[in-house]
Design goal:
The complex is a heterodimer.
Chain A lengths: L12 H23 L2 H26 L5 E3 L4 E3 L1 H21 L22 H9 L6 H17 L3 H19 L6 H33 L4 H10 L4 H19 L7 H8 L2 H26 L4 H23 L5 H21 L3 H25 L2 E3 L2 E2 L9 H4 L1 H15 L5 H15 L3 H27 L6 E3 L4 H19 L2 H9 L6
Antiparallel strand pairs in A: 1-2, 3-4, 3-5
Chain B lengths: L1 H17 L11 E2 L8 H17 L7 H24 L8 E11 L2 E9 L1 H24 L6 H20 L3 H19 L6 H32 L4 H7 L5 H19 L7 H4 L5 H10 L4 H8 L1 H4 L3 H24 L3 H20 L3 H31 L17 H14 L6 H14 L3 H30 L16 H21 L4 H10 L11 H25 L11 H7 L4 H50 L4 H22 L1
Parallel strand pairs in B: 1-2
Antiparallel strand pairs in B: 2-3
The chains are: A mainly alpha, B mainly alpha.
Chain lengths: ~525, ~650
């Protein structure tokens, strides 16, 4: 600070390589959109984006360990938490991308419209369908979003955090509006998501500005130092912390910043919803952990109760509202709100167990959510997804395997033992209890019981209900099958032998400051 | 091999545990090498077969059954190889451990999953895999036209694997895995033809009654864990001497309860008769030769505990004596050939139970009888299957008769089994059963007279009811249904019967007078001197022989010379009681099923009226109402959503401001 000369900061490009790979892959994808013919785009984009993600994952595994540290003028922190969550985002986004690429034998991703810009039902739309237009832009968009998420969990500076937030959000706004069927609903969802997202970003920025005013720096370390030394402008600190938190709480869909979640989850193309639910949560909670644990840990007495109340509200409201839903996607949306509350219970703990249990829970939630939405995309009636609970009646008799997988995932969402849902909840609740937040765990358990009701209603409908008229389960290609099987297998594995992943989460739970 | 590496790492642990002196006073287990180190293959082979046949689906239809049979024989071959290796060792070193992996480490308990290869477990391995493989072969013919043949063989393989886990386990916990595994296989196979609700109900009955026994075994394990902090045989048996009398008695009784469930001993005997609903090879393998003897194995294996608790041991003997009479009486009145055989199984296991209840001298004869019984009873069950095959799957002996000429091979092989079970001199059953009777007479005081007398009386009744079965089926006049055309079964079925028939005749003479069985089992049970019986051995032998002749003669007079009515005639109260299994189901219904069902109905009613109507009804109603109100906030308008967020922010900041 204070020097008149601009000194270019040291940047450890090797450490940033995984993110660079993803962004470059996204840019190459944009180029492909420009140069490749319509027919070949799908065939190029799918392997390109999957390969990009796999390559980034390999780079992360090979290089991450030895290149930990702060870089780029301390604005990026690549520590155990960042690397673990980046790896989780990459793995989940590979699964999400596979589910997005499902074509059901057609020549383009089935969930996405031919022409996002055309008005639904217009002549342009018909024309676009006729000439076989495609929306393979989803691949570069997804890669950009994934890159943003990876940066989000590593950002060690409020400004960089904001940039990452926008990088990950903007593609998601677009992706949400690209559904092939029920396009109006999808576009409405996209617009809502964008407007409310901007609104919450404004809160975040306001909070960041207040913190800058308080600490004179955007760096987390500087903010933490300012809090420790006590600069005497507490009037800026507390509102700053809380407003920054609002921006992050919006992203995870915690009450009272959750209102967008059901509408967007319902309107967005189903595989996008799965990707969004799983990966955005990982990224946003990663960022939240870093802000709360690294930057403003010293002001915990001010924010901890607020986060605790938000956690309680999320669990209660998410659980209560889920029980009157009649749409499977909305049930999963409200379930995601309740899960945000469960995860916040781990965040509140504010110790190493809090970090590790939160990370573990994020992994379990991601691996159960992506396959769940992938299965929703398979259940069809008259060409569109049959998302009403009534339409799922008797599914178990027609497609026992799919119904069994979905039942298992619902058990996991409910937190039944032998699924990862149980071990995850156990981890966050015990972290919270050990730090004196027992009442939060009690609310969590009660909320779990309430949510179990709607999951079981769905299970009963699937196995015991009378078969609903024309609902069919489309036979998935290998891509969706892989996404579903990996998710289900992980859900089982984390349920019966959680220790390897728990150990990993525990050994990487320390932040670099 | 990773298993091998792992086992090296764990060897020190198990050795340390096995090093404990006392208790058995027997061999110190050392770690297996060579073929014995691959002992786990015995379990893995049939288990892989079961998995392949179940997961492989229709693809394996054509070759699956043959593969399952082959894998069962392969398991037998490994068993033989292990025995050969073991015989090369000095007697006191014939106990090898095969540690497999670190299984449970919770709190203070750390348990390695491992196998124990000793003379006792290997005697069972031989019985299970040899008889089991023969029955696999037999089933190739018996189940030939069944549409679910593949599934049947998958279950058979599953059973063999589970039974081998049971007998090869080196801890009570792993034994329990096999215990439940055979229970599952038994359940699946009794209900194999579950399109018949009666068969499905029989499977359920077996399952439920066995759960009662399991509670005993689990309780025993819980007490062991609390007392010894371990569940492996070496530690538990090694430290048994340090436990209190009451503890040991409780463990002994709890183990006995488990044994009663699995081995259909009084008072948990009621499931065995109904279990005959399963295909006949299943009755032969599971419900005669092997699984039902698991209870005897459990008690024999736990001898270190029973040696220290005479009270529990006495109860074992009483249960055995009761059941042997019970089964024999029921057997006299059954007209269903399989149910009569089931009653006799119950009775014969009663003999074994009595023998293990007699103390160190009895163990040997219990296991000896168990092995010979496995042969002659499996032989007769397979024979019964062959008879059913010839008589269009009918089982009512009142509609059999005079079958000896039409199905000669079956008749001859069955005759061998019959001679063995009634204890005709120098057949397998004569050796093993007579020694149990003699040992019973060596008990002191009243015990000798009671147990000896019961065993002797039981032998006479056995001769009567088994002869009744034999004569009703093969002698007398033909009382067949009009459409019956008896025909001999194919060779694939009769050859296993011939092999078992040969065993029924000569196995006793091969194993006992040569000292093979005594020498083989001595390292496990120790050497126990045969006490002097209350009456001379010769007198016992003669009276047993006389009783046998009287029983068989009586049966000849009643069921071969005289006409047998085609329907069961009116009979005395005793006969009616025996036909109804001495009212076992009525008693169970009155004491257990009835009250349980009443309780269940009350609970359902209470749930419907009180809980659903009141407590949860109120809760869910309330929740729904709250939910409905909250739902109104979710109206779809972005402006309302933004307002919600703003209100949230204001509320948070306001609350913090107020708190400060």
């Amino acid at each position: 600070m204070g020097g008149s000369m601009f000194v270019a900061p040291e940047i450890n490009y090797v450490a940033l390589l995984p993110m660079i790979i993803v962004f470059v892959g996204g840019l190459v994808g944009v180029t492909v959109e420009g140069f490749a013919s319509r027919r070949t785009r799908y065939a190029v984009q799918v392997p390109l984006s999957v390969a990009t993600l796999v390559l980034a994952l390999v780079a992360l595994i090979l290089l991450g360990q030895d290149n930990q540290g702060l870089t780029a003028a301390d604005t990026v922190a690549l520590d155990g938490v960042a690397l673990t969550l980046q790896g989780l985002v990459l793995v989940l986004s590979i699964l999400g991308l596979l589910a997005m690429s499902e074509r059901f034998g057609g020549d383009q991703p089935d969930a996405f419209t031919q022409s996002g810009v055309s008005t639904p039902g217009s002549a342009e739309e018909t024309l676009a369908t006729k000439v076989g237009a495609t929306t393979t832009e989803i691949y570069p968009l997804t890669l950009m979003s994934v890159g943003g998420m990876m940066l989000f969990v590593a950002a060690n500076d409020l400004l960089l955090l904001f940039v990452a937030l926008e990088i990950l959000s903007l593609p998601l706004y677009v992706l949400s509006g690209l559904a092939r069927r029920r396009r109006l609903l999808s576009q409405e969802a996209s617009l809502k998501y964008f407007l409310l997202g901007s609104f919450s970003s404004a809160f975040y920025l306001f909070g960041a500005v207040l913190l800058y005013g308080y600490a004179g720096s955007m760096r987390f370390a500087d903010i933490a130092a300012a809090i420790t030394s006590g600069v005497g402008m507490d009037g800026l600190l507390v509102p700053g912390v809380l407003l920054v938190a609002v921006g992050l709480l919006f992203k995870v869909g915690a009450v009272p910043f959750h209102a967008w979640t059901p509408d967007v989850y319902q309107g967005a193309p189903t595989p996008v919803t799965g990707f969004m639910a799983a990966c955005t949560k990982v990224a946003a909670f990663g960022a939240m952990l870093r802000v709360l644990y690294v930057a403003v840990e010293g002001a915990r007495l001010e924010w901890q109760p607020v986060i605790a109340v938000v956690a309680a509200l999320s669990m209660v409201v998410g659980a209560l509202l889920s029980i009157v839903q009649t749409d499977v996607k909305r049930i999963l949306a409200y379930s995601s709100i309740a899960h945000a509350g469960f995860i916040l219970t781990g965040v509140v703990a504010l110790d190493v167990a809090g970090v590790s249990s939160t990370m573990f829970y994020l992994a379990t939630y991601g691996f159960m959510t992506i396959p769940a939405f992938a299965i929703v995309a398979l259940v069809r009636s008259a060409g569109t997804e049959a998302t009403l609970v009534d339409q799922w009646a008797g599914l178990g008799r027609r497609s026992p395997w799919i119904a069994a997988c979905f039942t298992f995932l619902l058990m996991a969402l409910a937190g039944i033992p032998l699924t990862s849902g149980f071990t995850g909840k156990f981890a966050v609740f015990s972290a919270a209890v050990s730090q004196g937040w027992a009442w939060l765990a009690v609310i969590g358990v009660l909320a779990s019981a309430v949510t179990a009701y709607i999951y079981f209603t769905l299970v009963v409908q699937m196995w015991l209900g009378d078969e609903a008229g024309d609902t069919v389960v489309v036979r998935p290609s290998w891509m969706t099958s892989v996404a579903i099987l990996v998710g289900v297998a992980m859900t089982l594995a984390l349920g019966i032998m959680p220790s390897p992943v728990l150990d990993l989460a525990q050994s990487t739970a320390a932040f670099l400051r | 091999m990773s298993v091998h590496d792992l086992s090296h790492g764990l060897a020190s642990v198990s050795l340390a545990l096995a090093d404990d002196p006392g208790g058995l006073g027997a061999t110190h287990a050392t770690q297996a090498e060579g073929i014995a180190g691959l002992g786990w293959l015995m379990i893995a082979l049939p288990l892989a077969g079961a998995a392949l046949l179940l997961l492989g689906g229709r693809m394996t239809n054509s070759w699956g059954p043959a593969l399952a049979t082959l894998l069962s024989w392969a398991s037998f071959a490994v068993g033989v190889a292990v025995i050969v290796q073991l015989t090369g060792l000095p007697a006191e070193e014939r106990a090898l451990t095969v540690p497999l992996w670190d299984w449970v480490s919770v709190g203070d308990l750390s348990l390695t999953a491992g196998l124990l290869l000793d003379p006792l477990s290997l005697a069972f391995v031989m019985l299970i895999t040899f008889v089991g493989s023969l029955i696999h072969v037999y089933s190739l013919g018996y189940m030939e036209h069944d549409p679910d043949k593949r599934r049947f063989f998958a279950y058979l393989n599953l059973f063999v694997a589970a039974m081998l886990i049971l007998v090869l386990a080196d801890s009570y916990l792993l034994l329990f895995v096999g215990w439940e595994g055979v229970g599952l296989a038994s359940y699946l196979l009794i209900g194999f033809w579950n399109w018949n609700p009666e068969y499905a109900a029989a499977a359920n009955k077996a399952f439920v009654v066995n759960r009662v026994g399991d509670v005993g075994l689990i309780t025993a394990m819980a007490i062991m864990l609390a007392t010894f902090g371990a569940l492996d045989f070496a530690t538990v048996h090694g430290n048994a001497g340090g436990a209190g009398d009451l503890t040991l008695t409780l463990i002994g009784l709890a183990l006995l309860l488990g044994a009663c469930g699995k081995s259909a001993q009084f008072p948990l005997q009621s499931w065995l008769g109904d279990a005959m609903a399963g295909p006949t090879p299943v009755s032969a393998l599971i419900h005669a030769a092997t699984m039902v003897t698991a209870g005897v194995y459990l008690i024999a294996r736990s001898q270190a505990i029973y040696d220290l608790t005479p009270d529990a041991r006495l109860v074992v003997a009483i249960v055995g004596a009761l059941t042997l009479l019970y089964g024999a009486i029921v057997g006299c009145a059954k007209d269903d050939i399989k149910k009569a055989l089931a009653a006799s199984t119950m009775s014969q296991i009663g003999y074994m139970m009595l023998a293990v209840g007699l103390g160190p001298v009895g163990y040997l004869y219990a296991i000896f009888h168990l092995v010979t019984h496995g042969f002659f009873k499996a032989n007769m069950f397979l024979g019964a299957g062959s008879v059913m095959h010839a008589m269009d799957n009918r089982v009512d002996m009142r509609r059999f008769g005079a079958l000896r000429t039409d199905i000669k091979i079956t008749f001859v092989t069955f005759a061998a089994g019959w001679l063995a079970i009634i204890g005709f001199p120098f057949t397998a059953g004569w050796f093993s059963k007579d020694y149990i009777i003699e040992t019973a007479f060596t008990m002191e005081g009243w015990q000798g007279w009671v147990f000896g007398g019961v065993a002797l009386l039981g032998a006479g009744i056995t001769a009567f009811y088994m002869s009744r079965l034999f004569f009703m089926t093969f002698f007398g006049t033909a009382r067949w249904h009009d459409d019956a055309h008896p025909h001999e079964s194919p060779l694939v079925m009769t050859v296993p019967m011939m092999v078992l028939a040969l065993g029924s005749l000569v196995l006793g003479a091969v194993l006992y007078p040569t000292g093979i069985i005594t020498g083989w089992l001595e390292p496990v049970f120790g050497h126990a001197e045969h006490g002097e019986p209350l009456i001379p051995v010769l007198a016992i032998q003669i009276s047993a022989f006389v009783l046998m002749v009287v029983g068989a003669g009586l049966a000849w007079m009643m069921y071969a010379r005289r006409d047998v009515p085609e329907t069961a005639p009116e009979a005395s109260l005793v006969t009616v009681a025996a036909r109804r299994d001495l009212f076992q189901d009525d008693v169970n219904d009155a004491i257990f099923t009835g009250p349980t069902m009443a309780l269940a109905r009350t609970a359902v009613d209470a749930d419907a009226t009180l809980v659903e109507g009141g407590v949860t009804g109120g809760t869910t109603g309330g929740l729904n109402a709250v939910s409905g109100m909250l739902r109104r906030a979710q109206n779809g308008f972005v402006r309302s959503y933004a307002l919600t967020m703003l209100l949230g922010v204001v509320a948070i900041l306001g609350a913090v401001w107020v708190m400060q």
